[in-house]
Design brief:
The mean pLDDT is 81. By secondary structure, the chain is an all-alpha fold. Helix 2 packs antiparallel against helix 3, helix 2 packs antiparallel against helix 6 and helix 5 runs antiparallel to helix 6. The protein starts with a helix and ends with a helix. It contains six helices and no strands.
Length: 196
């Protein structure tokens, strides 16, 4: 075999592995992608509104020590949120700038979406330590008719962590599926159709 035959064989193999995506298929893909982008924008603005409201509530808290603890807790939550939203913005930009011309580019996009599902669930579960801190602050500053015993305090903390983790995980999965997961499944279905 000479060099020209090898080049032709190589080019034929590449073309066979990365089929082009038709305009009709691009339109089917762009609809769920636009819904994902729209939901990401809406979620971003909701999170900003929630943190503005939280800081406003913190400014009204008394006494000063309670206000300081709550403000530091909300600021810590904001730092975690900024970290994870940095990952979400990267995906948002990738979705906005994606060139869906081949099967491989669509497959890469689906992998990015699934990776961000893991980030999303990690984001919700990362709030578990904040639940512990909130419970500690509540136990410290809420006046109780009778002082709580050590066993009762331990049970409240352990119960709140277990219940909070379960609730965060379930809410995170539900929220993700409702706003992103069903569109990702639609894109995965289109990917399987293209492969066939």
């Amino acid at each position: 075999m000479n060099i020209d035959e090898l080049k032709n064989t190589w080019n034929e193999d590449i073309i066979d592995e990365t089929p082009e995506i038709s305009i009709e298929q691009k339109n089917k893909i762009n609809l769920p992608l636009e819904k994902v982008r729209k939901n990401m924008r809406a979620e971003f603005w909701w999170v900003i509104a929630i943190f503005v409201f939280a800081f406003m509530v913190c400014s009204l808290c008394k006494p000063f020590k309670f206000q300081l603890y709550i403000t530091v807790l909300v600021a810590s939550m904001l730092i975690v949120t900024i970290f994870f939203f940095g990952k979400f913005f990267k995906l948002y930009n990738d979705i906005s700038n994606t060139e869906l011309k081949t099967y491989e580019s669509l497959k890469d996009l689906v992998n990015q979406l699934n990776l961000n599902k893991q980030y999303y669930l990690s984001y919700y579960i990362s709030f578990a330590p904040f639940i512990v801190c909130e419970m500690l602050i509540v136990l410290e500053f809420i006046p109780w008719p009778k002082p709580l015993g050590e066993v009762k305090i331990a049970l409240i903390l352990i119960g709140s962590v277990i219940g909070g983790l379960f609730l965060l995980f379930v809410c995170g999965r539900f929220w993700f599926y409702r706003y992103y997961g069903r569109y990702i499944k639609h894109i995965e279905t289109l990917l399987k159709e293209l492969k066939a």
